[in-house]
Structure formats: C-alpha cells, structure tokens
C-alpha cells in the first residue's frame, strides 16, 4: 500500500518541491488509484469506494501535471496513502453484512472507521498543500533490504533447516546491511548469538524447535517459499478480482 | 487503610512466593526452591537497565522482543518481569546520560544537561546516586499512590455501561494523542489505522472473516506481537542503520565516591519531592507521561531555584528532579491500565497485549477477580525499585562497559532474536513474514513522520472499543445520540472535544511543541 510514495524520494533540503518528484509521485498515486477503481467492479456495493478512487485518480493526475502546489510532501503523500488504506479497507470489507435492525453487522465498524480514516487522510493531504513542511527523507536501500531479506530467509528456512543454521545465516545476512561490517568479528558474533539463542529458547525455555536440517529439507524449503508467495500474492489477486 | 495494608500484604506474599523448580541438568532432575516472582522481578530490572543503558533499543522494542518469552511463564511472573523492564529502563537511561552524555532513553534527555556536567566535575558518583535515590523515593510514593487510587477508580469504572466505556476510551486515546509529540491529526490517523488493523480476522459476534482476503493466516487476526515487533523492533533497526554511528566518547574517569555528601542530600531533597509530585500527576494522564514529566520537573526546578544560572553547570537539583519525575510517572502510568483497562502509552499497550495473551482482560475486573495479580504487580514495583538501587550503583562500571558493544553487532542480534521470538509463539513462519511487512510499514511511517505508538494503542483498544460501541448501540436501539444523552458519557466526550480544540489553538500548540522538543 505504500509502494507509490516510495518512488518519490525528496532530494534533501533546499531543493524546490515541484518537478520530477511530483511527476513520479502523482503518476504512482494515479496508477494505484486505477487499480482500486478496477477492484470496485468486483464488489457488490461499489458507490463509495468507486467515487473515492476516481477522485484519487484525478488528484494523482493533477499532481503529476504540477497543478497541485505540494508544500509538504511528507504530509501530502502520507495523507494520500492513508486514503488508499481506507479505500483498501472499504473494498476488503465490502461484502460483509452491515447494520441489521438495531444491531451492527460485522461490516459496520470497519466501514465506519475507514470512512473516518479517509476523512482524516484528506485533512492530512490538505495540510500538505497549505502549510510548508519537510521533504520526504531519502530512502536507503541496502540496510532495510538486507534486514528484511534476512527475516524472510529466516521464515523460509526455520522449518526445513532448523534453528542453528537459520539463525546463523539470518545474522550474517542482516549484518551485511551495515557498512561497518567486519568479517571475522561478524562470523564469531553470529556463532555467539546462535549459541545464546539455543541456550535461551531450547535449553532454558524448552521450546520445541527443529534444531538441525530435516532429511527432506529441500522439499520443505520449496513448500515454504510457495507459502510465502501465496501469502504475498493472494491478497493482491483477490483484490483485483483475479481469484 | 487497613484494607490497603491487607492488600499490600497479599501482594508481598505473591512476590515472595516460592516454587520448586525441577531443573533437568544432563539427565538428573534437581528440585530447587526459587522465589520465582522475585527472580522475574530481578531479571526484568536487569534487562530494563541494560536496555536503558544501550542507546538504539527502546523500552517498547525490548518489551515487544521479550513478549514471546513470557508466554510460557505464569501470568503474574510475566507481568512482573515486563513491568520491571519498564521502570528498570528509567534507571538505566540516567546512567548513560550522566556518564557519557548519551540519553539511553527519551525520559533521561534532560538529565544529560546537569548530570554530565557533574560527571565532568568529578561528581559522577553523586549524580548517579542521587538519581537512584530520587528514583527510589519516587517509586515508593507512586507505588503507594497506585495502591491507594486503585480501589476507588475501579469501583468508579464498575459503574460504567458500554456507552460510558466507549466514551472513556475515546477520551483516553485523545489524551494520548494530545500529549504525545508530533501532529495531532496524524496521530488520530494512526489510531484509526490501528483500529482498522484490529478488525482484521474473525468478527467477535458473528464469526465472519473480516478483511482477511481468505487467507487462513489472517483468520485469527493479526498477532499483536507481530505488529509490535515489526513496527518497534525491525523498523527501528532499519531506521538506526541510516544514522551514522556516532563516536561514543566514553568517560574514562573512574566513578569514585558513590555516596552523595550531606549537603547534596539537603540540596536535592526538595527537588526530589517536587519531581515526584509532578511525575505522579503527569504519569496518570495518558500520553508520553514519563518524558513530559522529566521536562516539566526540570523546568519547575529552574523556576523555583534561587540562582537559576547554576542549571546546566552541574546543579544537583537538575538531576534529582527529572529522575524522580520520570520514575514516578512510569509507575503511575499503571493506574489507568490496571483500574480502567486503558493503556496510556505504547508500553502499557504492550502490557495489555501480554495480559490478553495470558487470558486476562485488563480493566476493573482484574482487581476483584485476580487480586493476587493486581497487588502482586504493585508490590513487585516497590521491590523492583529497591533492587534497582542496590544493583545499579555497584554495577555502573559493567553497564558502561556494555556501551562498547558496537551497534553493528547489536542489530543483527536483535533481528535474529526477534525472528526466533515471533516464530516461537505459534511455530508459524508466516507470523515472521507479517512482522517483516510491518517492519517495512514502520519504516515508511517514520519517513512520513507518523508515530507508530498511537497505532499500537488503537490496535490494542480496537476490539474493546468496537464491542462497547456495538453493545451501546444495541441497548439504545440504534440511537447514536446515547453517547450524548447519558451524562457521564457526554462529559467524557465533551472533555475529549475540548482537549482537541485546545490542542489546535496556536498558543497551546506552540507551548506543546516546546515542551515536547
């Protein structure tokens, strides 16, 4: 839900805010809103989300065309993402039954709070147009990517390869995220941490962990990866009505 | 009064409870009698101090990290330990403020001003010990306060119907937003996001899957620990990696003469008392209690001092007051949680999560239904404070040497520790992935200057709020004006509205920003 804004990093203070960032940011907003519009064709009561997504597309195009004076990109794009989040919740809860008689249905509260969130999101966006504010800080790639990668690796490997190997590897991958990494120290540190985790979780707390690789490790690994893809893709496909 | 003493006695009984621990050492089983809750209290206090000392790991992140470990423990022990981490961190933060001019926690930022000056003048020992003594005094007073206010507030809360409860939660959240740092509007947006996240999963009444995209992993909702660890653990690490590793100028000088002189004690006694008072009051209010309390106490000291120019140059009052205040506030923050079931800040939200996982619904019922938990926790706070004074001062050298552990080794350790912790809750790799996703979201939030704490508050309060809202509406036969026509509920909502309007006034906003900066 936040991909759109990621592509619009600020370049630091002192640079004026119009120009390529708003072009890219605006296009990203419009494209994501278009996907939302698409998704509204697969739900039964599309009026509100459809209107919202059409509005968002308009805002995105206007931003890309430089028609919107974005004074505080942090707030402006932050607010737009909040509206998208509200839209997502609206679409996701569209099929839930609403109020019946005096009783709230399961869908009432999600829709109520998404509506409020969309409203507040619009207010935050407006603040970004009216008041001067800071640019979006530049996103770093190396640190975050490697830390997240190490977590995903751990999730995929813990079952097939066991605690010892996954912990050691996750440590090594995440430490690559730091520019001050030193090999000898890191290899030793990973060993100490692995031993510590074994001592705490397995020896002291007696938690049931697979310690060493299972005999059919590669099969389970493939299974784990397919699980990861399913987890990541299903919401997206469902949302677009493909599944 | 005798009730209070009886209850405290019950609490101390719980704290000094012995159980037999069957330890399996390489095949032989040994039974050792252990004062189990005391041990948890000690572990919590030590870990808290450690975290307080290390900059770059916050209290919230640590409690989130240790949450999975506490699942296997008995509930009383788990909560005692988590509470210990919380106030232990207040102590630890001051140690680094004084010795290395790096506040380990946001609550000890002001302590740097005079504390480090004192250290430079060779009075580090006096500064540390007055901080510890002040904290201990504040801890004692606020423990009694928690115990004394517990009963009346609880009986008040028991009178509340669903409409009042809903309004009370709205007020609590608004309070938290207005007193916390950053934009009020964005904080409200975060609360709403948290509320929406809490609705993912099966509906409480009908069992219908809500916003789950038919994923079985989401059928039970998003795990509380996953969000907390993702947003406060992983995101914070990623964030810290971006900062240049500052040179940590460690004070080489030996800390000698731990005892403050008689004059020091006389000088600081007033400051400690004032700090405790300010801290206790501010702590009860939701929001960033302990941080604001320390700033407010420092400001007040400067105002009442005969010679304000001494501040910033090593005035002992400048250490005593904020340290007492932050500890008092950290403790009294338990009052809204334990009596009304409303967490006033992110740490307390984590405590709610811990309680829920142990099957305890925080709120007024805790005191009547589980008195040993309630009073055990309160008594453990007092014991924990005593432990901190005793263990902290002699161990100062150890804590400071820990600062030499470079962050480049620390952060991968935290990453793997968090991973294992999350995995161990349900033996589920998808939980780890969800936490990673929240790590990315948390990183994005910081880039756009959104505070993650209100989101966690909203997430924790979400189910309770929705339940009460639904019930109130049902009882009122679908009439939404019920929140305005019932007097208590109307008052609470009016106060919330006034607070919001006040926070939007330019004058108040300015002073709020100054206070928070």
C-alpha termini separation of chain B: 42 Å
Biggest beta sheet attributes of chain B? 2 strands, antiparallel
Output mean pLDDT of chain B: 79
- What helical percentage do the residues of chain B reach? over 70%
Number of domains of chain A: 2
Taking the sheet with the most strands of chain A, its summary is: none
Q: CA-to-CA gap between the ends of chain A?
A: 19 Å
Number of DSSP-assigned strands of chain B: 4
Silhouette of chain B: globular
For the biggest β-sheet of chain B, the strand order reads 1-2
Q: How much is the radius of gyration of chain A in Å? A: 23 Å
Helix-strand category of chain A: mainly alpha
Uncertain residue ranges of chain B: 247-253
Number of DSSP helical runs of chain A? 8
**Which word captures the global form of chain A?**
extended
Please mark out the parts of chain A with pLDDT under 50 across 5 or more consecutive residues, or reply none.
1-18
Average pLDDT over all residues of chain A: 80
Radius of gyration of chain B: 23 Å
Give helix and strand order of chain B, one letter per element, not per position. HEEHHHHHHHEEHHHHHHHHHHHHHHH
Q: Which chains make the largest contact?
A: A-B, 88 and 66 residues
Tags for this model:
heterodimer, A: 243 residues, mainly alpha, 2 domains, 8 helices, disordered N terminus, B: 517 residues, two-stranded antiparallel ribbon, two-stranded antiparallel sheet, 23 helices, 72% helix
């Amino acid at each position: 839900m936040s991909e759109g804004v990621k592509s619009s990093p600020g370049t630091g203070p002192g640079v004026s805010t119009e120009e390529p960032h708003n072009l890219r940011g605006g296009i990203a907003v419009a494209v994501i809103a278009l996907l939302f519009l698409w998704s509204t064709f697969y739900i039964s009561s599309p009026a509100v989300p459809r209107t919202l997504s059409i509005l968002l597309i308009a805002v995105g195009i206007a931003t890309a065309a430089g028609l919107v004076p974005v004074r505080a990109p942090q707030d402006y794009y932050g607010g737009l993402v909040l509206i998208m989040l509200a839209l997502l919740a609206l679409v996701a809860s569209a099929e839930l039954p609403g109020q019946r008689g005096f009783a709230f249905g399961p869908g009432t509260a999600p829709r109520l709070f998404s509506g409020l969130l969309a409203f507040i999101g619009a207010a935050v966006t407006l603040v970004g147009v009216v008041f001067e504010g800071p640019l979006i800080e530049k996103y770093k790639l190396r640190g975050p990517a490697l830390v997240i990668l190490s977590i995903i690796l751990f999730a995929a490997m813990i079952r097939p390869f066991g605690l010892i190997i996954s912990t050691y590897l996750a440590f090594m991958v995440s430490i690559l995220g730091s520019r001050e990494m030193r090999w000898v120290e890191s290899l030793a540190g990973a060993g100490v941490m692995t031993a510590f985790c074994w001592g705490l979780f397995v020896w002291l707390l007696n938690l049931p962990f697979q310690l060493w690789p299972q005999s059919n490790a590669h099969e389970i690994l493939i299974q784990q990866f397919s699980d990861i893809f399913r987890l990541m893709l299903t919401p997206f496909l469902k949302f677009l009505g493909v599944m | 009064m005798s009730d209070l003493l009886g209850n405290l006695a019950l609490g101390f009984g719980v704290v000094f409870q012995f159980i037999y621990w069957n330890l399996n050492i390489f095949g032989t089983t040994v039974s050792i009698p252990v004062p189990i809750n005391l041990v948890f209290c000690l572990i919590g206090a030590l870990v808290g101090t450690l975290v307080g000392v290390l900059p770059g790991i916050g209290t919230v992140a640590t409690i989130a990290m240790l949450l999975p470990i506490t699942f296997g423990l008995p509930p009383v022990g788990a909560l005692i330990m988590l509470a210990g981490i919380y106030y232990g961190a207040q102590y630890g933060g001051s140690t680094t403020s004084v010795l290395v001019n790096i506040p380990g926690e946001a609550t000890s930022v002001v302590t740097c001003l005079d504390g480090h000056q004192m250290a430079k003048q060779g009075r580090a020992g006096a500064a540390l010990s007055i901080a510890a003594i002040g904290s201990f005094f504040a801890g004692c007073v606020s423990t009694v306060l928690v115990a004394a206010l517990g009963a009346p507030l609880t009986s008040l809360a028991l009178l509340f119907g669903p409409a009042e409860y809903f309004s009370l939660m709205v007020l609590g959240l608004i309070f938290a937003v207005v007193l916390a740092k950053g934009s009020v509007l964005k904080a409200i947006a975060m609360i709403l996001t948290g509320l929406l996240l809490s609705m993912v999963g099966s509906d409480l009444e009908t069992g219908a899957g809500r916003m789950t995209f038919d994923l079985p992993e989401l059928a039970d909702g998003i795990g509380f620990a996953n969000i907390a660890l993702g947003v406060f653990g992983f995101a914070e690490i990623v964030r810290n990696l971006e900062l240049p590793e500052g040179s940590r100028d460690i004070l080489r000088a030996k800390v000698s003469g731990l005892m403050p002189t008689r004059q020091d004690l006389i000088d600081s006694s007033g400051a400690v008392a004032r700090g405790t008072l300010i801290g206790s009051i501010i702590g009860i209010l939701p929001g960033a209690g302990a941080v604001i309390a320390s700033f407010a106490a420092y400001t007040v000291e400067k105002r009442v001092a005969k010679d304000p120019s001494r501040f910033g140059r090593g005035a002992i009052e400048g250490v005593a007051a904020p340290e007492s205040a932050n500890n008092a506030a950290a403790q009294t923050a338990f009052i809204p949680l334990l009596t009304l079931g409303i967490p006033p800040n992110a740490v307390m939200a984590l405590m709610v999560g811990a309680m829920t996982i142990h099957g305890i619904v925080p709120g007024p019922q805790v005191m009547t239904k589980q008195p040993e938990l309630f009073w055990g926790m309160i008594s453990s706070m007092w014991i924990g404070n005593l432990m901190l004074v005793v263990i902290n001062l002699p161990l100062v050298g150890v804590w400071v040497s820990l600062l030499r552990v470079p962050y480049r080794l620390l952060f991968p350790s935290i990453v793997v520790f968090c991973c294992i912790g999350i995995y161990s809750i349900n033996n589920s790799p998808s939980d780890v992935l969800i936490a990673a996703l929240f790590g990315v979201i948390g990183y994005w939030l910081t880039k756009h200057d959104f505070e993650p704490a209100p989101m966690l508050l909203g997430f924790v309060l979400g189910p309770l709020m929705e339940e009460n809202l639904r019930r109130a509406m049902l009882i009122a036969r679908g009439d939404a004006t019920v929140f305005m026509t019932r007097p208590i509920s109307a008052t609470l909502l009016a106060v919330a509205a006034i607070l919001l309007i006040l926070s939007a006034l330019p004058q108040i906003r300015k002073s709020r920003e100054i206070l928070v900066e």
